[in-house]
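sorry for the late reply, my laptop died twice this morning and i had to redo everyting from scratch. anyway the thing you sent over, i finally got around to it. pasting the sequence first so we're on the same page, its 428 residues, then the predicted structure underneath. double check i copied it right bc i was rushing
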Amino acid sequence: MDEPRQDANAALNAGLGDVHRFSTAGESLFRRLYRRLNRRQQLELDLQQQSALLQEQASAQERLQKQFNRLQNAHSRGSSQLEQLTAVLGSLEEGIIVQEASGKITMMNRAAEAMLGGKRAFWESDLGALFERYRDVEEAAAELSPLAETGEIPLNDRILRGQLIAIGDENQKRIGSVFILRDITYDALAARLKDGFVSQIATQLEKPASVIRLATELLSGQPEDAAVNQRLLEKLLGNVDALDRLGLELLDIARVAAGDFALQREPVAVEAAIWAVVNGISAEVKSRGIDLLVMTRALSGARVQGDASRLQWALAHLIRNGVAYNREHGYVAVAARVEGRQGKPYALISVSDNGIGIPSAELPHIFERFYRGQREGAPPGLGQGLFVAKAICEAHRGFIEAQSRENVGSLFTMGLPMLADTAPSAAG
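ok and here's the structure:
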């Protein structure tokens, strides 16, 4: 009886063991399944988060690309506008200098480069001093606010005037500066010379008028049957001629300025015109202790079409200039020849001297109206003779040139186109 009970207990224990093992195995299985399910849910959640992140990144990248494209377009437009602005500033006659607030020069157009010669010259001139004076100004009431102007600045054989302007932002803070430079050389010189023009005319009139008055008084005080004082008459006639030349010069100045410079048009024998001037002026030149030399070559029969009296006046003026700006015992040489230029024959008449010469800084201006040099010992005058002589040559479709070395002498050359049928064969 005990054996069946024992067998039953053994079977029961075995069954319970199997149940326990099955329970343990099931628990392990469910644990693994649960972990895998949780892992899958986590993976799905991670995948969703990654997908959302990728979408957000793609959206952000698209926004950044659009913004980059906008900036690139704006930069292209800005570069194009900057190039256009630079081109416009470069074409201006006024000098333009743009600076940062610190004073660093960021742009200088061609006109400013030509006026100053470079950035270093800016800081060494009154322009740099003017910037330093207003360096600490931090406010600008508008985008462009004028700060100050310079007076006349002599620089590189020019006379300049500058204006300093502050550049402001939307907060009225100064972010830079711009200088505007103007070359007022001609205007300044013209103003100075015009101021002295009337006094020069008065001076020119005073001497011959005084001599004429004195000579007239002396002649009027002589008895009617007294012998003619030839020397007094020569003085009188010489000063009348001086007044006549002055009157013609003033009249020609007025005609040139009015554009009414009419010429007679007739054949003029070149060699005869030269000798007419030389014979008429030789006594005057000799009285100044100056030798007058004449050399002509291959001019026989050569003629130009024009106004003989005006051409002679121009040549006489060049000779008188050579005498006036000469030294004691100096010389003035008149030479003439025929030369081909651009396939056409020209009569070249040159006047040279060994006088005081012309400074290189003045040479480019000597044919300008109202210009008078500052040479020491220069004779009084209106400063219009070369201006008129140039107008006469150009009215004859010719030219006038000048070469000079200070303290060595000068050479002036008149070039006149010749009548083709009178040009010597040597003109080639």
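The mean pLDDT is 78.
thats about all i looked at so far, will dig more tmrw
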